[in-house]
Hints:
Blueprint: E1 4-8, H1 19-27, E2 31-35, H2 44-57, E3 63-68, H3 70-79, E4 89-92, H4 100-105, H5 111-115, H6 119-124, E5 135-140, H7 147-150, E6 173-177, H8 188-200
Parallel strand pairs: 1-2, 1-3, 3-4, 4-5, 5-6
Helix pairs in contact: 2-3
Amino acid sequence: MPTDVILLHGLWMKGFAMAMLNRRLREEGFRVHQFEYMSVVAPPEQAIARLRKRIRGLAPGPVHVVGHSLGGILALLACQDLDEPGGRIVCLGSPLNGSSAARGLTHHWGGDVLLGRSRELLSHGLDHWEGPREVGMIAGRQQVGLGALVGDVGSEHDGSVGVEETRLPGLTAHCILETSHTGMLVSADVARQAAYFLREGRFDTPLV
C-alpha cells in the first residue's frame, strides 16, 4: 500500500497551487491528499482541528504531512501532541520563528486585512518543536518576491521568508535549495528532497 501524504497550501492560496508537487509525490509512489482551508477569514484553530481529524481518519498510517509556508506551521501545531498515526513532516519555506514580512505588513495600511486571522501565528511563529514526529525544513535562497520590501528578512531569503526564520530548535533536518518562496511549489529538487525526507528522515544534501 502506498504511504499517505497530506499537502497544505500557504497563505492566500488554494489547493491547486500544490498541483505540481502533488503530481511529483505521486510519481514518487505516495498516495497524496490535498487539504484545503481558509487562511485569512477563518481562525487557524479551525484548520488545525480539521487536519488532526483528517490525519486520524487515514490511520493506522503512517500519514506524512507536507506544508508550504503557513501550511507548515499548521502542520506542526496539529501534530505536536498527536502520537498516532506515525509519520513525518516536511515544511517548505515556513517561517517557524515568525515572519518579519508579516510583522512589517501589520504596519502598513491594509496589512491586518491581508493577513486576517493568521496574523498572530505568522508574526510570532513557534518557540521550539517537541512533538513526536521528525520534521524536515526546506528553505530557499532565490531572492524573488516582495517580502524584503516590508520586513527585514535577512541577507539570505527566498523573497518572502528569511532562511533564519525557517530554523527552529527541535527540527530533525534543514536544507537550503536554490528556489524562491513560490518556486518551491513547482521545483523538482524540492519535491525530490521532500520525498527523500519522508522515506529516510533526512535530506539527500550536505547539512546546513
